[in-house]
Structures are given as C-alpha cells and as structure tokens.
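Propose amino acids for all 176 sites.
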C-alpha cells in the first residue's frame, strides 16, 4: 500500500491521505483529477472493482464529499478517492464508462442529494423515489417534519414521542 500511495503522491502532489488500516486508505484529490487518478489506480495499480460511490453533505462548509471506494483483489486492499464539491449546483464528471456500476450509484446520488453527473445513463430517470415531489431528501437541510406535514394528512390516535425521553422512561421508570 505504501508504494501505491507514494506513486499517487508523485502524480498528484499536495493531496491529503488518511490511513485507516494497513489495507485501507483515503486520498482527497481535486475534482479535476478524479478521472486521471481513477484510471491510474484501475489500469496501473490493479484497483479494478468499484466497491461503492457515496456522498456526505457537509452543510456547514457548503460542500459535498464524494467517496469512490476502489478495491484491488490481488493485493486485498482498498483506496477511497475523496472529492469535495460545492453544494450549490453540485456537478461531477461521470465515471460510468470506467465502471458501468457507477451509473447506478450516480443515479442514486442525483436523486437523493441533487448531485448531477452529466452524460451518465438515465441519471434523470426516477430511481428510488418514484413520483417524488420536493427537494433531495438526503441533504441535511431537508426538513422531514415540514415535508410530512405538508404532504400527508394527520391521523388521529398516533403519538409522537421524543426517543430519548421515551427510552429514559422505559429504562428508568422510577426516575420519572
């Protein structure tokens, strides 16, 4: 793993690396370098499997973090390529031509976070949220309660409990 990370440092200087375990590292790179870094890892380092593509909403920083987790079967190790994108009009180059399964992940991220991947197959087609009306629900500023109150009628007989208070009462009824 050390040699692979050293070669990445040569090609993409100034990137940040986090070692999680001897067989797992995360490398943060500029969005413009993603394709070149992914091709290098796939074609020269043996990371032939895209394990997942996921996003984190860093609302306070106004950014999304995309993580492309790649696996090298021969060496039994993983590298995650991390890319930061501005939340406003978030757009990222598609990787569906490098790993066809990437198209599925990109459709999910488009629907759930609103991140666009121009040119990705069926990226604008409904995927999970058929008939969804509203903003992307995985964004941290999505107000679940307001959405539910505006889209669903109230049903009598349902109670809402604060989970912490409910569990405290269930676990320690003598403390009131």
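Proposal:
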């Amino acid at each position: 793993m050390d040699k692979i990370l050293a070669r990445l440092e040569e090609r993409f200087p100034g990137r940040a690396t986090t070692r999680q375990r001897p067989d797992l590292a995360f490398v943060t790179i500029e969005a413009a370098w993603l394709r070149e870094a992914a091709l290098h890892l796939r074609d020269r380092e043996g990371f032939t499997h895209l394990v997942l593509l996921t996003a984190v909403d860093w609302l306070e920083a106004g950014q999304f973090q995309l993580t492309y987790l790649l696996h090298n079967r021969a060496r039994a190790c993983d590298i995650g390529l991390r890319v930061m994108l501005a939340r406003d009009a978030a757009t990222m180059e598609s990787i569906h031509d490098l790993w066809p399964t990437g198209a599925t992940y990109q459709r999910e991220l488009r629907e759930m976070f609103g991140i666009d991947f121009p040119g990705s197959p069926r990226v604008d087609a409904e995927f999970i949220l058929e008939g969804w009306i509203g903003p992307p629900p995985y964004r941290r500023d999505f107000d679940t309660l307001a959405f539910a109150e505006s889209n669903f009628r109230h049903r009598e007989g349902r109670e809402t409990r604060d989970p912490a208070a409910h569990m405290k009462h269930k676990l320690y009824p003598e403390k009131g």
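The chain has one domain: 2-175. Helices lie at 2-11, 34-43, 102-113, 144-151, 163-171.
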